[in-house]
Amino acid sequence: MKLTKATLKAIEATDKDIFLWDDTLQGFGVRIKPTGVKSYLIQYRNENGQSRRATVGRDGVLTLDEARKKAKALLGRVANGADPREEVVEKRSAVRFDDMTKRFLKEHCATRCKPHTVRNYETMIDRHLVPAFGTKPLASITRADIAALHTSMAEIPRMANLALSVLSSIFNRAIEWGVLDEGQNPVKRVKGYPEKPKQRFLVQDEIKRLGKSIQKLEEAEDISPYVAAAFRLLVATGARHDEIRTLKWEDVHLDRGIILLDEHKTSSKGAKVIPLNATSRRILEGLTKVSGNPYVIVGVRAGQPYINLHKAWRRVRADAKLEDVRIHDLRHTFASQAIAEGASLPVIGALLGHRSVQSTAVYAHLAVNTLKDATEKVSDRIGGMI
Q: Where in this chain does the record put each Core-binding (CB) domain (predicted)?
């Protein structure tokens, strides 16, 4: 049959690879993977009589007409003694892992990832991945190599799983950019370690201790008023660390009682609205705007936000005797307090800016406790009547 757009559109993927060959150009065809991905290819015999296949390009990246034209040129080169598959293998064997990570950071992360994600990826690559694979050819890295690295990081399971995630993304980009063939991601089927989500939130007494420590260190000038405000805002709003740290005054609308962020952490579409309650408004109204600095949480450098809240946080939590509490746990604290006041999980999700029910589900056990309290109050009212 002659391959047409209609033919390609009509074919449905199965649990095995499907090959369709074009009658009008011998040796040109398309492979449909079980995932539904379609790739154009050529099949030919080299000068030694060996049957070879070479990928021409992925459908969607190339149109059918473009792929047929490219295939015709490649088959013409085969007739003159060339071996396209061997050339691809030689070219790919020259692509080193460390070079691929640089391209990954520059072409993928820099344009598609949030700054803090880029920093996390850079740290993972520099500390773990490049030391493990270095100048090794990308195409030579096997599943056993990946599993060995993962096992070597068993004592830090979350980092080990992050290593798998970053590696998988690197190999997927390599496939997307034609550096590797479809299915050449060795991270697949390397099983990550089970992770138990850490749920820590402050109870009333701990919140009071935290507040006293923040005030004490602020008055002693061990932390700046802006750092103190950052920690207070994190508890009062449930916002994410970087949403407060890099907050600009132009995004604060006290008259409307909201913070309006153009970029949402979990979505490239739409802004995020953070409602301001009386406490958060009081904190913001108490801050002095610095001329020439657009940020709410003013840093040491002119015109910049405060860079690292973690160092100051270690001092605060040590003074409050809350050594096991992370900055992110302030967000959990906000959610737990809202649930204690009877807020439903959908409302909690909206307040926290969650885009999926699963993200809010971690608070379900707290909601159950609230429901138990409610049913006990009902019991107290009706128990003597029935």
A: 95-175
Instruction: State which amino acid sits at residue 124.
Output: M
Cα 333 versus chain centre, distance: 23
Report how far residue 42's alpha carbon sits from residue 57's, in angstroms, rounded to the nearest whole number: 10
Q: Give the total residue count for the chain.
A: 386
* DSSP for 320-353, written as a single string: TT-TT--TTHHHHHHHHHHHHTT--HHHHHHHHT
The tens digit of pLDDT for each residue in 124-166 reads: 999 999 999 999 999 889 999 999 999 999 999 989 999 999 9
**Cα–Cα distance, 346 to 107 (Å, whole number):** 37
CB–CB of 196/109 below 8 Å? Answer: no
Are the C-beta atoms of 2 and 29 separated by less than 8 Å? no
Q: What would you report as the CA-atom Rg of the chain, rounded to the nearest whole angstrom?
A: 28
Task: Record the tokens describing residue 263, joined without a space.
Answer: 């970029």
pTM of this structure? 0.56
Number of H helices, E strands in the chain: 18, 7
220 - beta bridge partners? none
> By the 8 A CB rule, do 67 and 58 touch?
no
Q: What is the pLDDT of residues 287-338, one digit of tens each?
A: 999 999 999 999 989 999 999 999 999 999 999 999 999 999 998 888 888 8
Element (H, E) at 41: strand 38-45
State which CATH number among 1.10.150.130, 3.30.930.10, 3.40.640.10, 3.30.499.10 fits the domain covering 97-176: 1.10.150.130
Burial (0-12, 13-18, 19+ Cβ within 10 Å), 49: exposed
Q: What are phi and psi of 341, to 5 degrees?
A: -90, 5
Q: What are the CA-CA distances from residue 96 to residues 91, 134, 140, 229, 320 (Å)?
A: 11, 8, 9, 47, 49
What is the 8-class DSSP label of residue 286? T
Whether 3 contacts 20, CB under 8 Å: yes
| Per CATH, domain 5-91 is 1.10.3720.10 | no
CB 182 within 8 A of CB 37: yes
Asked whether the beta carbons of 316 and 217 are under 8 A apart, the reply is: yes
Q: Which CATH superfamily is domain 204-377 in?
A: Intergrase catalytic core (1.10.443.10)
